[in-house]
Specification:
The protein is α/β, with parallel strands linked by helices. The chain has a domain of about 210 residues: 3-Layer(aba) Sandwich (Rossmann fold), CATH 3.40.50. Helix content is about 45%, strand content about 15%. The strands form three sheets. A seven-stranded parallel beta sheet has the order 3-2-1-4-5-6-10, sandwiched between helices. A three-stranded mixed beta sheet has the order 7-9-11. Strands 8-12 form a two-stranded parallel ribbon. α5 links the parallel β5 and β6. The chain starts with a strand and ends with a helix. The site of nicotinamide-adenine-dinucleotide (NAD) has 30 residues, from α1, α4, β5 and β7.
């Protein structure tokens, strides 16, 4: 019996990782540690909350003592660390929150794991989940590989880059068995509607403007969240210690084209006239320090671990829209209260 501690499991990606591990590994005990910030939502895990191999703990990774207590009590063999502040726009207005959670929180977890494992590394693993944004921005050509130098531009990506460095430093200095994954933009069910795709789905449903930053020519490489969870499972179980894997969808879209595609599919599904939702597109002030283009070269994980995306973008987007259409209560819950205040401040 293995005990795996997953941090940030009530968030967007974390909830898919938790569900996958709880379902696929009935002989593991899965501990979901999450502070339930605005982005954490236990509704994301309603379907598995009563499984016998699942435990939820509400705790903040910035609390050093609490992390120590939890590690000593549950004695995890593995950690999959996803808890983070994850939104670039919020990092621009509150950078220190990102330093606290993403940097200090990660170091607290590394220290708690190091103390518990005490040099007995056999069968132990610390898997750090990171982003392609640590590599900075690409021009019109080229891809991020595992060898690309770090060049973060936003407070978010700078904090994630810092946490990646700490994780690798614990491997180099103390011999901790670590792996790092750097993934491109995810989309799918349970995506918090402050991010581009769910924000636009929500606004199309409510006939509200679709805010496109700058000229809309910024490019992202989109991956269906379940394919990210599958990749994490593979790397966690099969990678050699110390390895890094880039994960991406081979699926680049300029924001404006992506939003038009979303409008097209939504018009069809909502029985609206062709072109109706596109009229909601509104160009707004650009994000400061906006990275032009991200694109992942996922050759290494494909060749070494046999991973590739299981759904096309058209299928993934369709599944995502369908999920949001049949879970409007979820959307109403997360877009009430604090979300409204955030939205008014960000877009007015
Ligand atoms: P999210 O914002 O949806 O979820 C983050 C989760 O972490 C929430 O449940 C939140 O409650 C929890 N959390 C935040 N601060 C915490 C703290 N101090 N202590 C304990 N829990 C805390 O984020 P996401 O989009 O699911 O991203 C998960 C991870 O994957 C992050 O590390 C992010 O950097 C990385 N990542 C995200 C993407 C993406 O496209 N969303 C792409 C690549 C990598
Ligand atoms: P986002 O979903 O915030 O992810 P990230 O910044 O981590 O890539 O943004 C995706 C792209 O969409 C990015 O280029 C910024 C842009 N964007 C908009 O044009 N309008 C918006 O309202 C948001 C939230 C993002």
């Amino acid at each position: 019996m293995k005990t795996i501690l997953i941090t940030g499991g009530a968030g967007f990606i974390g909830s898919h990782v938790v569900r996958q591990f709880v379902k696929n590994y009935p002989n593991y005990k899965i501990i979901n540690l999450d502070a339930l910030t605005y982005a954490g939502n236990l509704e994301n895990l309603k379907d598995i909350e009563n499984e016998p191999n699942y435990v939820f703990i509400k705790a903040d990774i910035t609390d050093e003592e609490r992390m120590d207590e939890i590690f000593q009590e549950y004695q995890p063999d593995g950690v999959i660390h996803l808890a983070a502040e994850s939104h670039v726009d919020r990092s621009i207005s509150s950078p220190l929150e990102f330093v606290k959670t993403n940097v200090l929180g990660t170091v607290n977890l590394l220290n708690a794991a190091k103390k518990l494992w005490n040099g007995n590394w056999e069968g132990k693993r610390f898997h750090h989940v990171s982003t392609d944004e640590v590599y900075g921005a690409l021009g019109d050509t080229g891809f991020f590989t595992e060898e690309t130098s770090y060049d973060p531009h936003s407070p978010y990506s700078a904090s994630k880059a810092s946490s990646d460095h700490f994780v690798r430093a614990y491997s180099d200095t103390y011999g901790m068995p670590i792996v790092v994954t750097n993934c491109s933009n995810n989309y799918g069910p349970n995506h918090f509607p402050e991010k581009l795709i769910p924000l636009c789905i929500h606004n199309i449903l409510n006939n509200k403007p679709l805010p496109i930053y700058g000229d809309g020519k910024y490019t992202r490489d989109w991956l269906y969240v379940i394919d990210h969870a599958i990749a994490i499972d593979l790397v966690f179980h099969q990678a050699e210690n110390g390895e890094t894997y880039n994960i991406g969808g081979f699926n680049e879209w300029q924001n404006i084209d992506l939003v038009k595609e979303l409008c097209r599919q939504m018009d069809e599904k909502l029985g609206r006239e062709k072109g109706e939702s596109e009229k909601l597109i509104t160009f707004v002030k650009d994000r400061p320090g906006h990275d032009l283009r991200y694109a992942i070269d996922a050759t290494k994980i494909n060749k070494e671990l046999g991973w590739k995306p299981t759904v096309t973008f058209e299928e993934g987007l369709s599944l995502t829209i369908d999920w949001f259409l049949s879970n409007q209560e979820w959307l109403d819950h997360v877009t009430s209260g604090d979300y409204q205040k955030y939205y008014d401040k960000q877009y007015n």
